[in-house]
Design a protein that fits this description.
By secondary structure, this protein is mainly alpha-helical. Helix content is 60%, strand content 9%. It contains 3 helices and 4 strands, in the order ααββαββ. It has helices at 5-45, 54-66, 84-97, and strands at residues 74-75, 78-79, 101-103, 110-112. A two-stranded antiparallel ribbon has the order 1-2. The protein has a two-stranded antiparallel ribbon with strand order 3-4. Helix 1 (5-45) runs antiparallel to helix 3. It starts with a helix and ends with a strand. The model is unreliable at 16-21 (pLDDT under 50).
Length: 114
C-alpha cells in the first residue's frame, strides 16, 4: 500500500495556518480590549465623569492582568481614584507585553502567556 503524502502534508499545513489565524485573532481582540480600557482610563484621568462606576472594574481589570496594583484608594466595593502613575505603569506594561496577551477561549477574558 502506497501513501500519497501530498494530501496529508496539505492538510497539516492548512490545519497549522488555521490554528495560527485564530491565535492572531485572539491576540488582536485582546489588544483592542486592553487599548480601549487604557483610553477609557485616560479619559477619566482627564476629567470625564464616570457615572456608572465603570472605573472600579477598569482598575480591577488592570490589576488582575498586569499584576501591578493601583495607587488609588477605595472601599469594600473597589478602588475609585486611579492615578496618572497607574495609567503610565499599565501603559508601559502593555507596550512590553502586548504580544503575550490573548483572549482565553474558555473564559472569554484576557490572559497572559507565561
Amino acid at each position: 500500500m502506497k501513501i500519497n503524502f501530498k494530501p496529508v502534508t496539505l492538510i497539516l499545513i492548512l490545519f497549522t495556518l488555521l490554528s495560527c489565524g485564530s491565535t492572531v485573532k485572539s491576540r488582536n481582540e485582546a489588544q483592542k480590549e486592553f487599548e480601549a480600557k487604557l483610553a477609557s482610563l485616560n479619559s477619566f484621568l482627564n476629567g470625564e465623569p464616570d457615572t456608572s462606576l465603570r472605573i472600579i472594574g477598569t482598575i480591577s481589570f488592570f490589576e488582575k492582568v498586569t499584576g501591578i496594583m493601583s495607587e488609588s484608594d477605595g472601599s469594600d466595593i473597589g478602588k475609585f481614584n486611579p492615578t496618572k502613575q497607574d495609567y503610565l505603569n499599565w501603559q508601559q506594561w502593555y507596550e512590553v507585553n502586548k504580544t503575550k496577551i490573548y483572549l482565553d477561549s474558555d473564559t472569554g477574558k484576557i490572559a497572559v502567556k507565561q
